[in-house]
């Protein structure tokens, strides 16, 4: 009887220790997901603020290129709460027009830096969210499964059309082979 009591007490203690450990680990994961998600959102807001400043500055300058003016106004009207393919394409067109008109802006370095910071925070979130056992806890929450990278456009240099590059990447994912440059 004493052995049975000892075994039961040991099993109950083990279950309690596991339950308390799980509770603390779950709270830690949720807290980290919250701060990482907020970090991604904050970095995107900082980046979109820099975009808005650049657009305002360029619109105030007397730019004779109607295409560039059109894309700047489109970018201004576009909702920039999160990454979208439309936003990426508009940024590509603005960069392309700035390059073709030889219009120098002091924003290129700032924008590239902001994109790098945003992508780093996205990478940290996506890796943490996708790691075992974090994804088991996170799948029952409202946090996004992943954030999208903004990695096709580099400001101040010639870029490949993002629509064409996405098609090549999607084709590479589907069929394999050499990674598209």
Automatic annotation (TrEMBL):
Designated name of the protein: LemA family protein
Keywords: Membrane, Transmembrane, Transmembrane helix
Transmembrane domains' residue ranges: 7-25
Lineage of origin: Bacteria, Pseudomonadati, Bacteroidota, Flavobacteriia, Flavobacteriales
Species annotation: Flavobacterium magnesitis
Source taxon at top rank: Bacteria
């Amino acid at each position: 009887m004493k052995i049975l009591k000892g075994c039961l007490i040991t099993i109950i203690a083990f279950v309690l220790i596991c339950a308390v450990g799980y509770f603390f680990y779950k709270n830690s994961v949720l807290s980290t997901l919250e701060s990482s998600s907020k970090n991604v959102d904050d970095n995107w807001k900082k980046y979109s603020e820099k975009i808005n400043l650049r657009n305002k500055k360029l619109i105030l300058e007397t730019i004779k290129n109607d295409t560039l003016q059109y894309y700047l106004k489109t970018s201004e009207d576009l909702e920039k709460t999160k990454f979208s393919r439309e936003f990426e394409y508009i940024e590509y067109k603005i960069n392309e027009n700035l390059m073709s008109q030889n219009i120098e802006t002091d924003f290129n370095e700032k924008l590239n830096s902001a994109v790098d910071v945003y992508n780093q925070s996205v990478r940290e979130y996506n890796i943490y969210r996708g790691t075992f056992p974090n994804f088991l806890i996170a799948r029952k929450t409202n946090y996004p499964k992943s954030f999208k990278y903004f990695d096709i456009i580099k400001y101040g240099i010639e870029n490949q059309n993002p629509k064409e590059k996405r098609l090549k990447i999607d084709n590479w994912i589907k069929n394999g082979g050499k990674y598209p440059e």
